[in-house]
Amino acid sequence: MPVSTPPVPHPAQAAHPPVPGADAAPAAPRVPDLAALDLTDPQTFLDVDPHAMWRRFRDESPVHWHPAGPRTPGFWVVSRYADAVAVYRDNKRFTSEKGNVLATLLQGEDSASRKMLAVTDGVRHREIRNVMLKSFAPRVLEPVVAGVHAHTRALLGRALAAGRLDFVSDVVDHIPIQTMGDLLDIPHADRPRLVEWNTRTLARHGSGDDEFESLMARNEIIMYMGELAAERRRNPGDDVLSTLAAATVDGEPLTEDEIVLNAYSLILGGDESTRTSLIGGLIALAENPEQWRRLKAGEVSADTATEEILRWTTPAMHFGRRALVDVPLGDRVVRAGDVVTLWNTSANFDERAFADPDRFDVGRSPNKHVVFGHGPHFCLGAFLGRVHVKAMVEALGSMVDDITLLGPPQRLYSNFVRAYSALPVALTARTAPDHDTPTRTGKENH
């Protein structure tokens, strides 16, 4: 896809220079001046303390103009919760059809535009979403939910028998892909390949990895789903892919691209985001022993713990939109055609929306995070995402006595997902596991 030509300096740069000032709270490593930060570079998210960085953005430049790079245009960085929610809600003045993440927005287009739900707006978005919603209703997914809980407990049981393990490859890699695989009826032998392709699509292992590998991995998934969709047309089943292949809107079938790209999107979004939440959640529990004690003791509900793990980990660090008209936002004016990035990883730690946001609190309520976005493009798979995390929360609370991190987690190289490639841990089983320990599961307001 062509790279758009960098524009002339944005007028807002002169009108609203960065506000000088120190960090609201000292952090190491030190956060450079905001104007010096390059949010297009994944290395930034490995080198800089994210809490300190985003605190400075929220306090000093909440609607911030990020300068153009050698091959990319400038763009807006929205870091406060209220501003992000306002843009998420506004599908009249902002569009997803030019891309919804930095990588595609800065290229000027998304090849899946008006075909894949996430980058389709208006009437067609509603039509495709309504087709897919039939397969994602909680009632329809009841057998899937039961399977997630059983599969999670079985994997955790094997992990406890081993004692020492890599929580990523031995446990988490086998959870969401099995769910998405069951929904799409993907042969079991093919699922490990999809996990690897998916990881390479969204992130790299380091700066030395070739971006071309990410593109090739994406194409592998799309070609695979295309072959599977063709087979489902010939031999339909009761899976989501068969539903897409057989669906009609006003008597017309979905196009081949719509079928394949929306199936691809389910794999892309459902696997990596869930894995990130499960891995980050275990790290948070290990590093916050009082919260781990509260969970084991049944002092908090599995629902509130699930929501806090989702907020704390915020797998998709950002989403984005392009402005269709001039829009005032904060004390700035976003011009028609501008790229606007909404940083969930900052909004979910905004002191204006969350009390003591830098504290991991498994009893936090309310907890109206934006992990799944907001508004018309609210994540179709949010229910399943919560199911996966809750299943792990309940299994850990009833089966595990102690979590010990045996080394630092290995982060992947990305400015989109806060993902991991390895996490060495030791898990100790409860001496007399009480699988009937009551866990509060009262529904919270989200």
TrEMBL record:
One of its GO terms (biological process) is cholesterol catabolic process. Residues 1-10 have a biased composition (Pro residues). Signal peptide: none annotated. Residues 11-27 have a biased composition (Low complexity). Keywords: Heme, Iron, Metal-binding, Monooxygenase, Oxidoreductase. PROSITE patterns: CYTOCHROME_P450 (PS00086). Residues 1-27 are annotated as: Disordered. CDD domains: CYP142-like. SUPFAM superfamilies: Cytochrome P450. GO terms for molecular function: cholest-4-en-3-one 26-monooxygenase activity; heme binding; iron ion binding; steroid hydroxylase activity. Belongs to the cytochrome P450 family. This is Cytochrome P450. The lineage of its organism: Bacteria, Bacillati, Actinomycetota, Actinomycetes, Kitasatosporales.
